Protein 1
Amino acid sequence: MQTKRTTFRSWWLPYLLVAPQLAITLVFFIWPAGQAVYQSFLREDPFGLSTTWVGLRNYIRLFDSAEYLASFETTVIFTVCTATLSMGLSLLLAVAVDRMIRTASVYTTLVVWPYAVAPAIAGILWWFMFNPSFGILTYVLEMVGYDWNHRLNGEDAMTLVVLASAWKQISYNFLFFVAGLQSIPMSLREAAAIDGAGPVKRFFTVVFPLLSPTTFFLLVVNINYTMFDTFSTIDASTAGGPGQATTILVYKVYEDGVKGLNLGSSAAQSVILMSIVIALTFIQFRFIERRVQY
Amino acid sequence: MAGIKLSAVKKIYPGAAEPAVKGVDLDIQDGEFVVLVGPSGCGKSTLLRMIAGLETVSDGEIAIGDKVVNQMEPAERDIAMVFQNYALYPHMSVRQNMSYGLKNRKMPKAEIARRIDEAAAVLEITPYLDRKPRALSGGQRQRVAMGRAIVRDPAAFLFDEPLSNLDAKLRLHMRGEIKQLHQRLKTTSVYVTHDQLEAMTLADRLVVLNHGRIEQVGRPLDLYRRPASTFVAGFLGAPAMNLIEAEVSGGALMLAGTALARGLQAEAGRVTAGIRPEALRLRPAPGGNFRLDYVEELGGSRIVHGHIGAQRIIAQTDLAQELSAEMHAELPLEELHLFHATEGHRLSMGVSQPAAADPQLVGA
């Protein structure tokens, strides 16, 4: 591959050109991240009047705290459910659109719409539909004999945030799956049809294995999404409740830091989260291109 | 094994101005190797895909053996297909690629293994059985694709331009292998190609298609010797047959005021004359009708480009042929083909022309 190389006349011009981007990264990422790391070793009172260096004690306390470990568990359940639900549904929709010929573009446009809805609005939307007093879905559930109340029932609350978050992410996954499916040569499916594989078998033995790079990429993206970007959806629908039922890690950072003003612990939690993101990103870049290939 | 019978088969794509296949009748015998040939867009691939069951049949009937297969799934038709881009499953090893179709048909494992080993030995791909297709060269992939068809032991093989992704040398080699393979297995085969040489050399019977219709069917040599139309005449043979505008008058073929051949019993009037480059007899003669333009050396023979009157003409000669700037061109009557000047169909000349003979093995 040819690389384009531009030669600048003065040595400072290239630095000047990348400076805005660097400044943004510095001010909005490196600096706050550094602050968080520093603060995670401190204990401060809410008014900033006294500051004590406590070393790793914030971290040790976190891993001793049943509440924090429960939040870890909640996060895992939430992530697995959301990623599975949204990827499964979007794969189903993508396979359906792949079989369509005439109306495929209209259908695609409709499926992509939810992506344009802000996460908080999505949270409110589902909160309305499942509202224990006047929600339409609650009404329907009551008719089939289920008493829905996500304000009291932790499982109902978890279902609600999973639905709201998965629904938001379907569009994104769908687009990638459609692109992935279209890159599989038609003749492979035809060969499989001649080889005696029915549509279902054809999907699981030929199409799905060939989609594995797309699937793996989406898995990493979806895990990242559910762990971090669902904050506003949760905040707008259940606010982490009832009790701690839907308090995932990122929501706990906010609760302890902004609401509880326990700044040191909150900073330590965000450092842990940050290392999870870094690990996931590393896995994605390191293995995605190499391992999942055919 | 079985024959294939097409009766008035049509294909109409929705929204297309005219049908892709306009009523094709063809009776393929059991064990026959039939080649469908024609320029791109002539409907040959569509026809093959309809036999395979990958396209629906708009009208007419396709029967494999004695079963009408119009409504059958591709898998139920007992055919195997070799695709142009090989269509090997990239995530499976060669062995898995070959066994996939057999496993789907619930064949016992021992039988699958036996068939794969046998086919791999024939195709000389045994060392690659555990490799993935991407670790193979084009020719090896082609063999695997054929192996996948052979292990099925189907009623018919369908080939969709299987050699067009290979380089010239390999294509020649694989062509020979396909021919040998057919002689050995004697499985009914339908082969689609746009390459006339491939068609000539492989076919027991050749089907020339043009604009969704059969132009002519017959043994390759018969088609070469007695093309039914200017289309077939121009399509078969390399270098291509000269098709020139001429006139029949007084029993002679007149071109630019000179007679190219005499003794015709054809109606006087304008015609298209078909002359194979190798049939034209040249001899140096000052003031002759053939003016030499340039010569291409093929090594074993020469291609002589020139013109008679305003019409370009090529001749293929052996190396002993003397050449000069002006030559006299002549043609034995039995080597002349006459076609209708506007319709393009073959005209009778009242001359008996020898039928093509099968190659005879002497001393066998």
Note: Chain A has a mean pLDDT of 84.
Protein 2
Amino acid sequence: MPENDTTPAIQFQGVGKRFGDNVVLDGLDFSVAKGDRVTLIGPSGSGKTTILRLLMTLEEANDGLIYVDGDPYTHEMRGDKRVAIPEKRRSLVRRRVGMVFQQFNLFPNMTVLENIIEAPIHVLGKPKAEAIASAEALLDKVGLADKRDARTTQLSGGQQQRVAIARSLAMEPEILLLDEVTSSLDPELVADVLGVLRNIAETTDITMLIVTHEMQFAREVSNRVLMFDGGKIIEEAAPDTIFTSPTHERTKEFLRAIL
Amino acid sequence: MNDTQAWNWEHAAAVLPELLEGLQITILATVVGMVIASVLGLLVAIVRRSRLRVVTFPIGFLVEFIRSTPLLVQLVFANLLFTQFPSLAIGCVVLGVHYATYMSEVYRAGIDAVPKGQWEAAIALDLPRSRTWGAVVLPQAIRNTLPGLGNYAISMFKETPFLFAIAVVEMYTAAQQYGAETFRYMEAITMAGLLFLLVSYPTSLLVRRLENRLA
């Protein structure tokens, strides 16, 4: 990758997503530069989570194209026809994207360490000793080195979420998707998880796409905020600007309601 | 010895060795049958999740067909059809296939009970299909199916007397034979019933304990 590479990490081109008659995204265009930390805000049902799920191929767009680091991801144009890209090629792009879920989604039949080394060994083909070594370093980073051999069900929600973060980082993603990662945590556990994420934001150059209701966190970590409503971006600005002097009426309403 | 009395302890004791020999066949048929039912049932459950109707339709039809016809008829039919195989082998396979159709439903419920988030996490980590099934979904699903497996094993154990129809000398057939030779059916059948109880009741207690531990 050249030093001043200007290819966006993520690019949406006219992306549309419908669930039955419900139009969630409608001709959405936006892009995220490498190393950007972008927070998506907006009322529920505005399409923010759908964007993350499209990027993880958990949903499939009905129209438009998605590029990751310039590579077509799920569909590409052949002539003027939009065709699906086969799973094998999607998988190579997907490997560069990681996701942390609201419900953690750790594998309960595995220990903490096994959760983290599963994909590095079986997807990236890392030798086991190497996978374990980097898993231990990651556990140290999220402050759970002593939980290495614990069952995930023995951990608190905050601890589980920190393991989930370590698990996604073990794949060395270029892009990290954070889907309301603190929304199902007890209030006193939120700070630990946000601390870990703040640390990752400061010490890595991973591109982050964040859906959250923690506005203080969004303000500290992200350098851009996109306000969504009805499947469209209605306002976009630096966090200091959007939180202190939003221009769009809907943004003002939304921020008033949640702050 | 008065042969007209309703219950004769000497006969009850005399029939035991033959019954115990039959019990071995009963247990063998149950174990082999359950192994077949467990493996085949799992395969059926996985294949039926396919989106290809050319695959799911014939399998679905076959499953319904087997479930809608009596085990006894299937045993006799298979025994007539495959005369080149020993009856015991046919009995084990028919029991196994019959119960596989029930086991597949147990597996299906177990697989459906694995939360959607588990599949999504596997996609997010780009795990291959085989790893998603083998390392994530099935270990959780099978845990859910263990009590069902135990219950069907007991149920199959109690249905092995149908093997009488294809002349496999399991415990019930042994009792019948003793009765035919001595005309002491009461002792033979009673003792066979007691032996069935002696095996299935403790097993069912074990299954219940397993159920409670997994719950």
Note: Residues 187-203 of chain A form the longest helix (17 residues).
